[in-house]
Inverse folding.
């Protein structure tokens, strides 16, 4: 592997990421899958970095899941998105930040459509006005939240308490980074580093002391693929795709998988359990799985946030081995306590996958 | 008073036209940007379809220039403009060069394989281009992987940068298919036990002896040809290359590993050609190659009287086609000068 070749591509795919004053829109599903992630983003941005991040309570889904599952027509999706932009405009913001990768891809697709087909923009403005009476401005800057964390990765290092280094051996941790398909595969220029060798997560890992693994199935889908999972009869495809990824990355002995999409960590995390139950296989060391993290969870760990405040207790693949490698302290007895200290109950242990 | 023709470009077409014009008694100045004439031919080891050494053709062209053409290398052109009678070229060295006719024989560039990011050229150790392989052949050394091992499996990817809307090149580069077949045979000559694969869109064996060479590749050398475009490549831990392709004859996706992957890069117009064309008001086609007045009957003429075209500035050409085209251009210029 010639790293200089990658660096050349990374230099070609730079994007503008706004510095402050963000209008933040949430993902439909992330708070169920990884409930600490969006909260961690807001805490990092507002409390650590002192940035202005605003959420409007009236914002909705972007309709991306429905759009990519062929149940929401494009005109409907564009009108829903126009309403989001109207909320941004009414709130006095110009920098739009999405939590979800599919949303980011759909916002990019809609904006490109309007750029090349102004008559479509005029039509959608008409639909929105007719339906809601609202008007909107096009955002000056659209970024995914991982772009924003990437932009401030050095500031996070400066405030950080931990590095991605094995605290006993001093060796960099080995990280699989996985980008959501809708981040830059449709519009390479919209993603940091482009589509084939995206840099957005690589940049975080490198900055925080880790080492990125490039394995043969790196570009392959996580297994979500919308129809592969959303259509129940196709779920075998979803599992098969994830399995292909795990088998490809396993020889590289990754310490964890880092993701920036709502779906990818869900499938990497849950399908490791499923595969262990179905086939008795595990992909980490000593019967463990490979922990799967969102970039906000990782940034939170670097900053020294309590792992249970970041929501690691709802991960199917336990993250304790990773915490132990980095040397992050945690209280096992608090793992399944609620916010007010109430006992939430420990889930049943998997048959094969090592559980803590 | 003798008329002066400036031939811009000292590749196959430029060298041929310059020597023909000199033979016809014209005063010719041949300008070449590089430090020697020969163009891309200088980088090529053996030529299709008969695998003769490239230097034989190069030597022939060089000898024809000797003592009759004013060959000036390392000559960049700052600007070129039309004058009341003829043209004036301002050279980067500061010289002003008047002439009565111009021949644009500025040739082509090879497609930059880095642009097909999914193939990993410049990133994966054992992804090379057909031009890189040709230089390896020219060195006289045995072909090896970057790790110094003899390859036991080699893949050739056709149409890299050609017939590809994604990179904006819809045209066929004509000579890559036959180059791929030639190079595949040359690999087998070195490594008879190696498995060699060609991944093609169509195999366009358009000229004399090409089809026979394709037959030879299959029947004598046991080279496998699979129809389908490689979608992506990745690198294994042992530096071999994993490629994914759909075999479109069996409608099956394939994943396979090769020790060395060769990208058969096509032609693209050179930026210098386009710069000169803009200064002279020459029409550029949608494919960004130069347009003659009539591609069938006046293929060496441009819309600007006194400005002529030859060779690969007009599109992909083989060496033999470029030589024939340049000879015709020389005759047309000779006749044009008689009208002045």
């Amino acid at each position: 592997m010639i790293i200089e070749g990658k660096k050349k591509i990374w230099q070609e795919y730079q994007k503008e990421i706004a510095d402050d004053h963000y209008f933040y829109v949430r993902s439909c599903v992330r708070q169920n899958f990884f409930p600490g992630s969006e909260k961690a983003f807001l805490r990092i941005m507002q409390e650590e970095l002192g940035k202005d991040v605003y959420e409007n309570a009236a914002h909705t889904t972007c309709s991306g899941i429905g759009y990519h599952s062929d149940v929401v027509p494009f005109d409907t999706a564009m009108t829903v998105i126009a309403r989001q932009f109207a909320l941004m405009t009414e709130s006095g913001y110009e920098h739009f930040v999405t939590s979800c990768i599919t949303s980011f891809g759909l916002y990019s697709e809609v904006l490109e459509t309007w750029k090349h087909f102004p008559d479509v923009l005029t039509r959608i403005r008409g639909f929105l006005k007719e339906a809601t009476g609202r008007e909107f401005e096009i955002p000056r800057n659209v970024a995914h939240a991982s772009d924003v964390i990437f932009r401030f990765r050095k500031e996070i290092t400066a405030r950080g308490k931990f590095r991605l280094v094995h605290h006993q051996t001093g060796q960099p941790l080995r990280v699989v980074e996985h980008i959501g398909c809708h981040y830059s595969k449709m519009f390479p220029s919209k993603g940091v580093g482009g589509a084939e060798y995206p840099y957005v997560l690589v940049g975080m890992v490198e900055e925080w002391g880790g080492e990125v693994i490039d394995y043969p199935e790196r570009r392959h889908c996580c297994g979500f693929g919308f129809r592969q999972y959303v259509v129940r009869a196709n779920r075998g495809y979803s599992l098969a795709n994830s399995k292909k990824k795990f088998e490809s990355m396993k020889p590289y002995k990754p310490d964890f998988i880092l993701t920036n999409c709502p779906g990818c960590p869900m499938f990497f995390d849950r399908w490791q359990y499923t595969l262990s139950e179905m086939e008795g296989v595990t992909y980490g060391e000593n019967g463990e799985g490979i922990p799967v993290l969102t970039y906000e969870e990782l940034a939170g760990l670097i900053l020294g946030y309590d792992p249970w405040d970041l929501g690691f207790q709802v991960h199917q693949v336990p993250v304790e081995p990773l915490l132990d490698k980095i040397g992050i302290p945690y209280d096992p007895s608090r793992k399944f306590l609620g916010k007010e200290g109430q006992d939430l109950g420990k889930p049943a242990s998997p048959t094969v996958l090592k559980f803590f | 008073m003798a008329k002066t023709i400036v031939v811009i470009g000292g590749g196959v077409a430029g060298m041929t036209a310059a020597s023909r014009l000199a033979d016809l008694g014209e005063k010719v100045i041949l300008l070449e940007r590089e430090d020697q004439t020969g163009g891309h031919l200088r980088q090529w080891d053996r030529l299709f379809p008969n695998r003769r050494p490239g230097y034989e053709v190069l030597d022939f062209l060089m000898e024809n220039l000797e003592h009759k053409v004013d060959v000036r290398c390392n000559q960049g052109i700052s600007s070129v403009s039309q004058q009341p009678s003829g043209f004036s070229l301002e050279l980067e060295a500061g010289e002003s060069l008047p002439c009565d006719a111009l021949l644009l024989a500025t040739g082509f560039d090879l497609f930059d394989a880095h642009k097909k990011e999914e193939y990993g050229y410049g990133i994966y150790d054992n992804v090379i281009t057909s031009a890189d392989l040709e230089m390896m052949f020219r060195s006289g050394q045995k072909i090896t992987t970057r790790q110094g091992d003899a390859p036991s499996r080699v893949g050739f990817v056709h149409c890299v940068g050609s017939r590809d809307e994604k990179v904006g090149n819809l045209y066929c580069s004509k000579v890559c298919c036959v180059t791929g077949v030639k190079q595949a045979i040359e690999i087998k000559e070195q490594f008879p036990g190696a498995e060699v694969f060609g991944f093609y869109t169509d195999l366009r064996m358009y000229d004399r002896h090409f089809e026979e060479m394709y037959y030879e590749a299959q029947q004598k050398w046991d080279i496998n040809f699979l129809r389908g475009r490689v979608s992506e490549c990745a690198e294994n831990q042992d530096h071999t290359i994993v490629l994914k392709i759909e075999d479109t004859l069996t409608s099956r996706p394939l994943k396979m590993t090769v020790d060395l992957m060769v990208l058969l890069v096509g032609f693209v117009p050179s930026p210098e050609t386009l710069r000169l064309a803009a200064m002279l008001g020459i029409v550029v086609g949608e494919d960004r190659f130069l347009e003659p007045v009539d591609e069938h009957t006046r293929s060496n003429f441009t819309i600007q009287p006194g400005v002529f075209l030859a060779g690969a500035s007009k599109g992909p050409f083989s060496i033999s086609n470029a030589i024939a085209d340049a000879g015709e251009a020389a005759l047309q210029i000779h006749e044009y000068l008689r009208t002045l």
Observations:
- The mean pLDDT of chain A is 96.
- The longest helix of chain A spans residues 74-90.
- The domain at 146-334 of chain A is CATH 3.40.50.11810 (Rossmann fold).
